[in-house]
């Protein structure tokens, strides 16, 4: 780390300046993950630059290009931010189960595109880079931006991307007030915050999904109008597709785009408090039970208290909690006919269930974070990583140690899947056929 970067390192990482005529400091290569994580947690972006050429390769290149370069080539191999954090071999250490010691909370990189004026339409895309899972969707929102606030409350953002000069004052107020501590970055429209058309062209690149649209993830296929000769984005999903393009552009800038997209994990985001169907949506008329299926009502704590849904549990007016009439006629107590709390969890108190729970607990304690491990192993095995990514040319000092970490992660993942299979077999022995169990079969 040199010059101003060295100052940041000394002030935030407790490093010491090295001797010389200019400011510089450093740490061992093997400690990169620990120190980079500290800088990212403090809001910095960390670019990892590696030497991608040996002296002999420099000499050969000079002869071939008839050049006279004196310094070996160096390239940026990764840019880590709060929203693009990954857990590769450089981000851990040699401790067994290190991935469980890291923060397990999902933090998302967001891109938000807004359209309309009176009734705002949002197209959103957010990704958890630790597991490579994308969410993409759209919704209409009211003037108070309640649906947008609910989205951020349910899926905590680590970084937000938005179009420069195309954000309403009310949306910016949400960013600055409700998400004041979240990193925000304005992207140039069309160039960085891609249009829906350019996003489809980008996804058709061979290193992503290729030009065979039938092989694309189902969620993305639903957003494409394939009635024309050249597939185009459905007009209803243009804002969502544009948000996806912004996320891909940013991941590409951080050199983790192929790692994430090749996981092919795309899910449709469905708001929990829909304010109504979009104008272009055409739904068949529903009656009876179908009319109410899938509808939800989101109630906050104050509403639950005023409607007396649950017994009051104290707060500012603690005397309410001792009001026997209020507690007696709360909806929860009216429908709760269990004599004791144990009756509410009778299945857990059965003798057979106790034995299963003890065995399941012991088994689950040994299961690692399989989602993150699978993403790591997927990244190791990518052909793109081995042939085109700058990391494939990087001259590392601790290559043997990193290879051991890769083997350890693979073995740990295989052992984890074996324990999950054992748990499933144990469940079948205790409770019989589970073919109709959604939780177990899926």
Automatic annotation (TrEMBL):
Question: Which BP terms from GO are recorded?
Answer: mismatch repair
Q: Which residues are in the DNA mismatch repair protein MutS-like N-terminal domain? A: 1-86
For molecular function, the Gene Ontology terms on record are:
ATP binding; ATP-dependent DNA damage sensor activity; mismatched DNA binding
- Domain named DNA mismatch repair protein MutS connector is located at 108-253
Checking InterPro entries in the record gives: DNA_mismatch_repair_MutS-lik_N, DNA_mismatch_repair_MutS_N, DNA_mismatch_repair_MutS_sf, DNA_mmatch_repair_MutS_con_dom, MutS, MutS_con_dom_sf
Return the SUPFAM superfamilies for the record.
Answer: DNA repair protein MutS, domain I (SSF55271), DNA repair protein MutS, domain II (SSF53150), DNA repair protein MutS, domain III (SSF48334)
Q: Name one GO cellular component term.
A: MutSalpha complex
Q: Which family does it belong to?
A: Belongs to the DNA mismatch repair MutS family.
The name this protein carries in UniProt is MutS_I domain-containing protein
Source organism per entry reads Gongylonema pulchrum
* Record lineage: Eukaryota, Metazoa, Ecdysozoa, Nematoda, Chromadorea
């Amino acid at each position: 780390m040199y010059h101003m970067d060295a100052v940041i390192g000394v002030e935030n990482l407790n490093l010491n300046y090295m001797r010389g005529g200019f400011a510089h400091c450093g740490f061992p290569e093997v400690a990169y993950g620990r120190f980079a994580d500290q800088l990212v947690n403090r809001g910095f972006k960390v670019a990892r630059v590696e030497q991608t050429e040996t002296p002999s390769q420099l000499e050969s290149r000079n002869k071939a290009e008839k050049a006279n370069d004196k310094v070996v080539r160096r390239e940026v191999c990764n840019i880590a931010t709060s929203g693009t954090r990954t857990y590769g071999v450089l981000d851990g250490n040699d401790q067994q189960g290190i991935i469980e010691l890291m923060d397990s909370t999902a933090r998302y990189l967001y891109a938000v595109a807004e359209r309309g004026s009176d009734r705002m339409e949002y197209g959103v895309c957010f990704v958890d880079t630790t597991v490579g899972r994308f969410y993409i969707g759209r919704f209409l929102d009211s003037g108070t931006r309640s649906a947008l606030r609910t989205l951020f409350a349910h899926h905590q953002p680590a970084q937000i991307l938005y179009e420069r000069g195309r954000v309403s004052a009310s949306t910016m107020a949400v960013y600055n007030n409700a998400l004041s501590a979240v990193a925000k970055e304005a992207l140039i429209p069309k160039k960085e915050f891609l249009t829906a058309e350019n996003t489809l062209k980008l996804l058709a690149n061979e290193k992503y999904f290729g030009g065979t649209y039938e092989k694309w993830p189902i969620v993305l296929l639903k957003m494409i109008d394939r009635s024309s000769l050249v597939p185009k984005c459905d007009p209803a999903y243009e804002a969502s597709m544009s948000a996806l393009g912004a996320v891909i552009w940013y991941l590409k800038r951080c050199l983790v785009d192929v790692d994430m997209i090749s996981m092919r994990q795309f899910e449709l985001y469905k708001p929990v408090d829909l304010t109504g169907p979009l104008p272009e949506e055409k739904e068949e008329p529903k009656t009876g039970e179908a009319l109410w299926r899938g509808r939800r009502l989101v109630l906050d704590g104050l509403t639950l208290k005023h409607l007396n849904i649950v017994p009051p549990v104290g707060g500012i007016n603690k005397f309410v909690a001792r009001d026997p009439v209020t507690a007696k006629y709360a909806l929860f107590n009216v429908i709760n006919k269990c004599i004791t709390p144990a009756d509410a969890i009778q299945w857990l108190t059965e003798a057979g269930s106790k034995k299963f729970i003890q065995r399941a607990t012991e088994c689950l304690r040994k299961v690692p974070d399989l989602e993150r491990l699978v993403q790591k192993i997927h990244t190791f095995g990518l052909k793109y990583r081995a042939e085109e990514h700058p990391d494939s040319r990087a001259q590392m000092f601790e290559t043997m140690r990193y290879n051991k970490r890769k083997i350890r992660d693979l073995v740990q993942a295989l052992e984890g899947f074996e324990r999950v299979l054992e748990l499933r077999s144990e469940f079948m022995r205790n409770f019989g056929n589970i073919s109709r169990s959604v939780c177990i079969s899926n």
